[in-house]
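STRUCTURE REQUEST FORM
Protein name: Tyrosine-protein phosphatase
Source organism: Halobacillus campisalis
Requested output: structure tokens
Priority: standard
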Amino acid sequence: MIDIHSHILPGIDDGAQTMDDSIHIAKAAVEDGIHTMIATPHHKNGKYDNYKQDIIELTAELNHQLHIHNIPLTVLPGQETRIHGDMMEGIRADDILTLNNLGHYVFVEFPSDAVPRYAKQLLFDIQLEGYQPIIVHPERNKQIIQHPDILYNLVSKGAFTQITAASLTGRFGKNVQKFTHQLIEANQAHLIASDAHNTESRGFCMTDAYEEIRENYGESMVYLFAENAEYVVNGENLASDSPSRVKKKKFLGIF
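Status: completed
Returned output:
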């Protein structure tokens, strides 16, 4: 498997704190069937700033350590950037790191409880600049859960989304799990990733998540998610179907 969202780089955000932690996370990733991972440390989220060149250098150092420890995992550089008003300037200044540094896909993180009003315009501007924005873990955003048309409108205009494996398996609660399934059913979910921070509270469950997809949607949907992860790593166009709206209805007390 390919995991396109992780916090495995040591000492730069709320993920791995030491290189030993990174090695431990890498072993857990391999045990879960992952052979390639994109390291996506937080950037511009109000607490952490991690710039392109620093991430690239630390990723190379981690790969060297993985080789020394004979761990069959390849780590690629990436970045999880919190949406902010100067994001386009960061892209143009080459401070924003695209996934696998291929100049194609850009992670965009919203605050957990809201979607800024300028998000639609910014995502459009990112596309005009020649990049493809991927909204990370929208299923955990309170405003999107309450007003699912927000995400529908963004996806309809060309944005992609990445759901979290733990959301699909219920580790963030039944409400988030239900909404995650609704996004898949509405063709508003294009990628799945671990967003792993450690091996305890925020670990890997990619195998379990893919099994959940297989049981509910069949082998073809498993193939779509797996294939799209490979497309991201290679900077190729994602497979996607036209999105439909998530019907706003009461389920498990969420609305």
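Reviewer notes: The chain has ten helices and nine strands. Residues 113 and 142 are 5 Å apart (CA to CA).
Form closed.
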